[in-house]
Amino acid sequence: MRRTTGFSITELLVVLVVILLLAGLLFPVLAQAKASSKQTACSSNLKQASMALNLYIEDSGDYPMMLLGGKQIRATSPITGYAATPTTVFVCPLDRPQGRGGTPLADRREPRSFYETWFLWEGKSGVEAWKQLGQFEPNPIVFRCYFHDSRLRSMLQESHLVSSFGSQMNGLALVARRDGSVKMDRRSDVFWDRVTQHADDKKGIWSAATEQPCPEVICDGSPPSEGIREY
User: Fold this and answer.
1) What residues have CB less than 8 Å from 108, skipping those under 6 apart?
2) Higher pLDDT, 16 or 204
3) Strand pairing of 173-177 and 182-185?
4) For 210-221, b where at least 16 C-beta lie within 10 A, e where not — what string?
5) pTM given for the model
6) Fewest Cβ atoms nearer than 10 Å: which of 1, 52, 147, 210?
């Protein structure tokens, strides 16, 4: 009679250890590849959003706004029709599936994960600030996405952060300039906003769009007095 032999316990343990070691080596590589793929997708979205914004400005002569409650407010919804993928163009794949949700109210039908620096702040001083910015910076940053910094991503994905971004210094972000160029940037702030708090300093908001120093007449050290939804 032929005796059949199987693996010993020691051999099984050795095989199991080898498999675990290989998995430990491969998983980080696969995770990095997945994150890199999502970063590429986000970069494509940012470029597309910048181009859509440019097309809107060429057609209308101004940055997009919408009428809400009898007031003109800054909004992203008017430019989604200029994008190739209007329902996902403002969403970073590293954010929650539903994105940030929109602000102001007119935008809440569109998920959004990017901070629009061209909003600056609402109101007459915001309009004046953007005019001043155009004189100092011909190619400003128009969109910022902060989900490419793991620490900030976990912070921004907290359930109470439905829309806006508040402030945290030295946040790594993927940014798109007015000409559509996209790159990583650590120069500016993350906008950390707990929904009811809108006390961002004007200089911090300005610095999200450009490295150029903010004129004293605009950045006087105080928060926007007119509020983010007034125009």
Assistant:
1) 101, 102
2) 16
3) antiparallel
4) beeebeeebbee
5) 0.74
6) 1
